[in-house]
């Protein structure tokens, strides 16, 4: 701490709380997409779960296009609430938004877990599941935007911890799936345990949020009101991804030397450090004393339009095949342990690990720079991953041939696909604030957040077309 009167983070409890809150925001998306085999089995009319489906060499039929719908209905709320956040954040108190969202997400995930024990026909089960996906991700979008608003009053260290938690959500979900499959219990109990895990995670997140007002350091910073709009929803996902998140989603990486010069090094961190970090404000004092006029959205867009378009295309390509197509790929080997664990490991776990690695690379180098025309070329080359994955070993196909049946092809494609996704997302989000004036960075961050959500939604929509072409 720079000032002696600032309280200390005793036992790092505030940092741990924000790390867990970051993990909790992207658990829903990651647990839903990782459990795609379970949902496909239920929708196929079989009373099967994760374990039994994993031993099916050909994989379950995606009768209801579950892969596509779960992706689309997870990303549309992000785009919607990115547009509505200013209204929501002015009308609803912050505590209500955060605590209310966590409670609703917990209840809906408890419903998903309870449905494991309920025998239902595929139609009603699909409708209830899709409604849950929509509402869970809607409240996740509100939750993330509100928490990022709170992080605007905190030092950048806590933003990094929060984003690190988001980045681990996908890996956590994949490991939970593998543990449930390897537990040796019956299939239904395995699925129930899998869905109870995020319920526990969300409950712990609620406890962490409620404990913040009782921590002296958190009270000190959260009592300060940031001077900017608090509604910037950043989904990594996404995080990709989250969360992407993606996800969403979107892990943070350690501070790079360039960050000392105001250059952020991860997608979410990039938008956060545009205006949210109070430690960066003194560096902008000379600009502020000149009292520049209100930034024009149109002028800022003219400066960053190519970078924004690259971000849209990166996420469009990623979400158009992941997980809608990649989750359908099965091992070409004979049925056994490897074929049982092939998709959870080679699709979900491998993607999240390599995506995290890709985002971390911008800590060490940033190439190409903002003036290079190589960036659009690299982004466009990722379109090749669409036919490559479509030509892998997907049993349920009627039009396209299988040109890459061996498992090694899919694993290689997935590694390059995930690393390039993480790196290019991080790079574009880092370059955007460098293309505008300091007082325009807040607008640039809001625009990049919107285009991030737009790319996710476009990719989810295109996944229906590519699925139909198989």
TrEMBL record:
Give GO terms for biological process. Answer: adenine transport; adenosine transport; guanine transport; hypoxanthine transport; thymine transport
Q: Which Gene3D superfamilies match?
A: MFS general substrate transporter like domains
Reactions that this protein is recorded to catalyse = inosine(in) = inosine(out); cytidine(in) = cytidine(out); guanine(out) = guanine(in); uridine(out) = uridine(in)
Its main localization is membrane
For this protein, the parts annotated as crossing the membrane are 12-39, 69-89, 96-116, 128-149, 161-185, 191-212, 304-329, 341-362, 374-396, 408-431, 443-466
Q: Which InterPro entries match?
A: ENT1/ENT2, Eqnu_transpt, MFS_trans_sf
Keyword vocabulary terms for this entry: Cell membrane, Glycoprotein, Membrane, Phosphoprotein, Transmembrane, Transmembrane helix, Transport
What membrane topology term does the record carry? Multi-pass membrane protein
- One cellular component (GO) term of this entry: basolateral plasma membrane
Q: Which family does it belong to?
A: Belongs to the SLC29A/ENT transporter (TC 2.A.57) family.
Function recorded in the entry: Bidirectional uniporter involved in the facilitative transport of nucleosides and nucleobases, and contributes to maintaining their cellular homeostasis. Functions as a Na(+)-independent, passive transporter. Involved in the transport of nucleosides such as inosine, adenosine, uridine, thymidine, cytidine and guanosine. Also able to transport purine nucleobases (hypoxanthine, adenine, guanine) and pyrimidine nucleobases (thymine, uracil). Involved in nucleoside transport at basolateral membrane of kidney cells, allowing liver absorption of nucleoside metabolites.
**Protein name in UniProt:** Equilibrative nucleoside transporter 2
User: From which organism does this entry originate?
Assistant: Myotis myotis (Greater mouse-eared bat)
